[in-house]
Structures are given as structure tokens and as C-alpha cells.
């Protein structure tokens, strides 16, 4: 059975909710999903998954949150060739560097040799109806990409 691994970082819950939405959408597509908060797991756990997802919020001046830095650095040391990845996260359009942690994690997955299975998704604060639809289609694209790999 196809295994998807979702690792998220969330301070006030918006990104956790995004991760939960993707988890549910993948499960509805009969994918087995493991979902973990970033301080509870190592990046190496992606090595056992077929579909790898990171959901990250963005902190000061467009930076990756401190508690996600190990994940960010370790990810780039892995060989994730043959695996499909997707990145999403919450930010706030009020800030100049909007949700840039999402861009940085996408680059890190590419360094690890993974294949992009869906366009990254940036959610302005909490996910609303339109975002939830987009996240559902993000999940479907990841599954389709994995099945055609
Ligand atoms: C001190 C601080 C700095 C932030 N800096 C940024 C930023 O540079 N870019 C951005 O897009 N969002 C920024 N945000 C907004 C958060 O990314 C946003 O509130 C997000 O929804 C938090 O996700 P969470 O609920 O999963 O913790 C910042 C928030 C705080 C409190």
C-alpha cells in the first residue's frame, strides 16, 4: 500500500489544520498516512514513504521556524530519488516575505532528489473553503504523480 508521510510545524494551529486536511484527503484516496509534528520525527522517516509532504508556517522576515531548522537541513542530506513530494503552509500576506518557508522546503526536497508531485500551496492564515478545495486537489495530484512514477 502506498504510504504518505506528512511532517508539519505549527505555532497557532493554522498549518496543523492544513496538514490534517491533506491527511484526510489522502486517506479518502485509500492512501495510508502518517502525520507527525516536526519536533517528534526526523527527516530520515521520509525514506520509508512513497509520498512526502511538509507543511510549514513562516516566521520573522520570511524565515523557517527554529523548530523546523533540523528538518530543513537534514532533508537536504537525504536521497529521496523516486519519491514524490509536495509542500504547503500558512503565512500572512501582511508580511513582505509571504510564506517563503514553503519555497525553501520545496528547494530542499529538490536538493534531496525527490520529484515534485503538485504545485506548492500557500494559505493566507487559516484555510478557507477555496483553500480546502485546493488542498484536496493537491492530494489528488500527489497520488496521481506517485502512481505514474
Ligand atoms: C512574529 C511573527 C512573524 C511572522 N513572519 C511572517 C513572515 O515573514 N511571512 C509570512 O508569510 N508570515 C509570517 N508570520 C505569520 C505566520 O506565518 C502566520 O500567522 C501563520 O498562519 C502561522 O501558522 P500556524 O498557525 O501554523 O503557526 C509571522 C507571524 C509572527 C507571529
Could you provide a short overview of the structure?
Helices cover 36% and strands 21% of the residues. It is built from 4 helices and 6 strands; from the N terminus they run βαββαβαββα.
Largest sheet, in brief, is: 6 strands, parallel
- In CATH, the topology is named Rossmann fold
CATH homologous superfamily annotation: Flavodoxin domain
CATH first level: Alpha Beta
Family: Belongs to the flavodoxin family.
Cofactor: FMN
Function: Low-potential electron donor to a number of redox enzymes.
Domain Flavodoxin-like: 4-143
Structural write-up:
This protein is α/β, with parallel strands linked by helices. The protein has a single domain, classed as Flavodoxin domain (Rossmann fold, 3-Layer(aba) Sandwich). Helix content is 36%, strand content 21%. The protein contains 4 helices and 6 strands. It has helices at 14-28, 69-75, 100-111, 129-148, and strands spanning 3-8, 32-37, 51-55, 84-91, 115-116, 121-124. Strands 1, 2, 3, 4, 5 and 6 form a 6-stranded parallel sheet that branches. The longest helix is centred in the last third of the chain and has 20 residues, at 129-148. The radius of gyration is 14 Å and the shape is globular. The structure holds flavin mononucleotide. Flavin mononucleotide binds next to helix 1 and strand 4.
Amino acid at each position: 500500500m502506498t504510504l504518505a508521510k506528512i511532517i508539519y510545524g505549527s505555532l497557532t494551529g493554522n498549518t496543523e489544520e492544513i496538514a490534517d486536511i491533506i491527511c484526510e484527503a489522502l486517506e479518502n484516496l485509500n492512501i495510508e498516512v502518517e502525520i507527525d509534528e516536526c519536533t517528534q520525527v526526523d527527516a530520515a522517516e521520509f525514506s520509508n514513504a512513497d509520498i512526502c509532504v511538509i507543511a510549514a508556517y513562516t516566521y520573522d522576515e520570511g524565515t523557517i521556524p527554529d523548530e523546523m531548522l533540523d528538518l530543513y537541513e537534514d532533508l537536504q542530506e537525504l536521497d529521496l530519488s523516486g519519491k514524490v513530494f509536495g509542500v504547503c503552509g500558512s503565512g500572512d500576506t501582511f508580511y513582505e516575505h509571504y510564506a517563503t518557508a514553503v519555497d525553501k522546503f520545496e528547494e530542499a526536497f529538490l536538493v534531496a532528489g525527490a520529484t515534485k508531485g503538485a504545485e506548492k500551496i500557500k494559505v493566507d492564515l487559516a484555510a478557507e473553503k477555496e483553500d480546502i478545495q485546493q488542498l484536496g486537489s493537491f492530494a489528488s495530484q500527489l497520488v496521481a504523480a506517485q502512481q505514474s512514477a
